[in-house]
Write a structure and sequence with these properties.
Helix 4 packs across helix 5. The chain is of the alpha/beta class. The strands form five sheets. A five-stranded mixed beta barrel has the order 3-6-7-9-8. The radius of gyration is 31 Å and the shape is elongated. The chain contains 21 helices and 20 strands.
Length: 681
Amino acid sequence: MEEFNEQLFAACMYYITSSEVLLYIRRRCEFYTNSEDRMFDFSISIKIHDLLDSDSELGNLVLNDPLRACEIFHKSVFTLIQSEALLPKCLQSTTVSVSLRLQSLPSLPRYQMKTSSDLRKFSKFGSLAQFQGIIAGMSMAEKYTKSARFVCPSANCDGSFGNKFIRCHIPGSPEHQTVRDDFLCSYCGQRLIEDISKRILGEKCVIEVIDKDAFDNNCRKFKYQSIPAVVRDDLIKMVHIGLGVSIIGLPVFYPDQQIFVIEANNIQPVEDAYENQTYLLTKQLGFQLHGPLQILYEDRKGSPWSFGLSVAFGFGGTVVPPGTYLNLKLGMLLSLLSSQEQPPGISLLAIGSDDLQVKRLFSYGAKFASRCVIHSTASHMSAFATRDRLSSRIFLEGGSLLLAGDGVCVLPDLGCSKKAMKEMVLQVLETGSFQIGLQPLPVMLPSASEQPSSLISLPCQCKIWSCLDFSSAKYQNCTENSTCATPGHVNDLNKLFINLFSLVFTVDSGPGSIAERLTSDDILTKAMGGQSQPFFQDDNLRELLHCASKLDVTIDTEAQRLIRGYYLASRRVRNSDSAMGMMPRTAILTISSLTEAHARLNLRLEAGEYDAIMAILLFEEVLLSKTGVSVLNVKPLAHANHEDLSHIIGPERDLQLLNFYQQLKRFLVNHAPDLDSCLEE
């Protein structure tokens, strides 16, 4: 056994000296030379595949017995420090603390956890395991003892001075295993006492990670249980509720709480990306479409707008008849492709008298996002404070807005929500975050006096899609055939919603509308045995949206000039007449995001004037829905009649947009003649 240990020690020394670990140790020693620290921590990053190539036995030891492997690395690091005199004040090995930080694990069933039921099985192996999921909740950080110094009470004993007895935290062990009163002096046999002034504290928190399949609408019939994980020190700042993570850790059992947990060794964020398709590289865009969308793209290349409008026309054809809610579906596609530089991205609000089809359309469209959460009254919207099972401290369970991550959160019944929830949504729309109060819980927390009432701010990165029903009592004064949600029709709180949402669409699906007729025709066709084939499959559309979202789009100078000129001219016109309503302060950011998203939808790497024209037209229709007045006299196009597709997605639509472009330029000349001088300033 001793000879085997020597072989492992030699293999460890060879790995350290032949890799970047040696440079890391030297830099840490230089740092400690100029500091007053008496404990020297070394967190060694290990690429397990490189270690296995260097020495398979040492690599297997790190995977299957990480505590013993850490002892060998500890001896190797201390030997290296002594041999090269890297740290003169480091005289004893007890002052050196070494931890191994693995970057990945082999893709073998022995090391990959799939469900929470595997936690008990893996804890018996004593080996490291990896689990991927989404953080559903986390506790407040608390202190724990990283190391404690013990001395002999006898002044004449050699154990009464120096750093001969230092107890360091062992991964997976509770607090009372680090700080105890039954340690004996190895020199005289007396019971050691702790030098409290030399105790070093760290921070830890508990997170709960749930399988990402729990957010898949196709897996709703299954129940998923979260897995608790203990996160310590520098890893804490890497986690937040709603983040998709890959956790590498040691499954252990806590006998005091009778619970299995993962002692996190390393945490890495992972993207909720669509990875089921293989994309062919091309020189122009980096991918190639497949199926009907490729044919459609080649057919509509001659028009700068037709491809995006055609995709919006057929989008959601299995949920609502093609052509219905055309602008709303276009807004949904642009929201999915909008960047997250300005959280919470492009948010959507649909206002109408019959929101059932809109809810179905939102539920359908949200599944193309990186993550989709459909809020219900049975779940929390923001976060919920409860008691942590491991530490009895405050534990935050994430609500729909946090669990959606950077995806889409659908709020189907916003008008029926409580006032506090509405105000929270308004706060998210305005600031990109919300605040929750941490009230003391004297029944749950034994140290409630140490937990003062406070507010914490949590960022919200998701895009919000919601709808309001005109048929409710608060809209009863609205005219029956109104196509715009003017502020006079709603109360003050809902007026704020209309002003703060990025895109607001008035959807008319009542009796006698085009949507009602198209829906009736579609129902009759299906009842008579007819089959309405979708224009493209969901997999083709998911491929398009995933690849388009990866395009790095820039806005050219002419498009930026057009956007800023429209904002300047509209602000002057609207501010001069209070009846027209104010221009939103975030208009430039919203139009710029729409311009970039429209370029992505049409697979362009540079957003030009054509993209800015569509973005401005869509935004002007939104202002018409918000204020009831359009300074450019646009008319909203809520639904597309099948008998007149040329005016919707064909050449006549291009001609209409070109005429709108000329009208927009005249509008800039009349109301923003000093545009160039304003841009120079």
